[in-house]
Amino acid sequence: MSADKHLQSWQExxxxxxxxxxxxxxxxxxxxxxxxxxxxxxxxxxxxxxxKAHRLVRRHVGEKLRLRESFxxxxxxxxxxxxxxxxxxxxxxVNYWRDHTDVxxxxxxxxxxxxxxxxxxxxxxxxDVVLYGFGRIGRLLARLLIERTGRSNKLRLRAIVLRGxxxxxxxxxxxxxxxxSVHGPFNGSVEVDEENNAIIANGTYIQVIYANSPxxxxxTKYDISDALVVDNTGIWKDEAGLGLHLKSPGASKxxxxxxxxxSIKNIVYGVNEGDITPEDIIVSAASxxxxxITPVLKAVNDKYGIENxxxxxxxxxxxxxxxxxxxxxxxxxxxxxxxxMVITETGAAKAVAKALPVLxxxxxxxxxxxPTPNVSMAIISMNLNAETSKDELNEYLKDTALQSPLQNQxxxxxxxxxxxxxxxxxxxxxxxxxxxxxxxxxRAILYVWYDNEFGYSCQVVGVMQTMLGLTTLSLPA
Length: 477
Hints:
This protein is of the alpha/beta class and 477 residues long. The protein folds into three domains: 3-117, no CATH class; 127-258, NAD(P)-binding Rossmann-like Domain (Rossmann fold, 3-Layer(aba) Sandwich); 288-455, Dihydrodipicolinate Reductase, domain 2 (2-Layer Sandwich). 32% of the residues lie in helices and 24% in strands. The chain has helices spanning 3-31, 47-55, 57-61, 67-79, 89-99, 106-113, 136-146, 169-178, 239-242, 288-303, 348-355, 390-403, 454-467, and strands spanning 33-37, 40-41, 85-88, 127-132, 155-162, 190-193, 198-201, 204-210, 227-231, 251-256, 265-266, 282-284, 306-316, 342-344, 363-370, 376-389, 410-413, 430-433, 438-450, 473-475. The strands form three sheets. It has a nine-stranded mixed β-sheet. A seven-stranded mixed β-sheet has the order 14-15-13-16-19-18-17. Strand 9 (227-231), helix 9 (239-242) and strand 10 (251-256) form a beta-alpha-beta unit.
C-alpha cells in the first residue's frame, strides 16, 4: 500500500469514528443503550479509542473489523426502539458479515437479534447514590457515575459527605475532582455553587454535606431518599459501625469499599454477586487485590483445581503511608513511601475464600508496597491438581478473557514491553501478563497487573448496580 493509501485509510477510519460519536451518545442518554465492541465500552470514547477498540477485534476472531463494516450497525441501532441494555456491535457485525456481503439486511438482522430489548419496559426507577468520603476511590467513583449522566441513567450521584468544612474546602474538593495526578483531567466541566454548597459536574448536581459521623445526616432534607450510601472512608468495617449510616433518614443500603469484618458479605463482582439478595442492606466490595486475584483464581480452579498457593502483592503505596519518615501505628509503614519498598501484611489471600469458598484455607499472602503511585501486581504461585504448560495455561486464560463470563473482569496481554504505567485507567479487575507466566507439570505462577484505583472502582460500580437491582440485559447473548 502506498503512503497516500495509508493516509486515506486512516482518514476514512477517523471520519467514521467521528460520525459514530453523536449516535453513541444519543443512544445512551436517550435510550439507556450502552454500545461496546467485544466488551470495550464506547461510551464517551474518543475517536482514537473507537479506532483502537475495532483493532482489538483481531484478538477475538483473528481478523479485522473495519469501521465501515460496523458503522451501519450503529445507524441501524439508532433507528430501533431498543432500551436499557448493552449491545455489542462488534459481535453483531462480525457474525453478520460471515454470512452476508451487503448492507440490505442489516436492519432486519438487528431487529431479530435485539428483539428482547425492543420496546423493553423501562419501569425501573432511578436510585440515589451518596458517596461517604471523597478520597481516591470516592473521586473515581464520582467520575464513573458522572460519565453515565443522562435521562436514562438509573444510578444517580446525589451527594458526597465529608468531614470538616473549613473555608475554601468546597473549591478544593472540586479542584481535586477536576485534576488528578494519576488519572488526568476530568472529562468535562466542574463548577462550584458556593451558596448552596454543591458541585455541578457535567450537569450532575452533587450536594456537598459535612458530617463527622454516619448517623448525623438527614438526607431527606436534600430530597434524597432510599439511597445507597457508599462508604469510602475505611473507618467503619463491621455491622455496628456501618449500620450507623442506616440511622440517617433517606439511607437504605450501605456498600463498603474495603474488606468487611464479621458476617458481612464480601462481593467480587463477576464471581459472587449472585450472593446478594434484596434483604442485604450492608455489603462489602472487598479489596482491590481480592478483586484482582479472585476472578483469575476461579478460572484456574475451574479447569485445573488448586491444591494450595501463595499470593505476593507488589502494591503501589497508598495514602495511609508517610511521605517522609514519621510515626505510624503499623510496622514499617512509617517509613517514607516514595523512597522505600515496604513489606506489610495483606488479608487479600484469605479474603478470597469469602467470595470463593472452595479455596478456603488454601492460600497465603503477603504484600510489598513500592514507590509507584498507582497500578499493582499480584504474583500468584499455585500447586495444581492437574498438569499444564505455559502455552496451554496462557491459551486457556486468553480464551477466558475474551469469551467467558469473566471477560469483564480479566484482561490478557501478550506484550513483551508492557509496564505498570501502561495499565493506568484499566477497567478490568486484573490483567494477565502472559509473557511472565511460568507453568510446568502441576506448578504454575501467574503475574496479574491491576489498576488498584480505577479497575477496582469499576468493580465497585458493578456491585452497586447489583445491590440496587439495576442489572443490564447484554446482547447478543
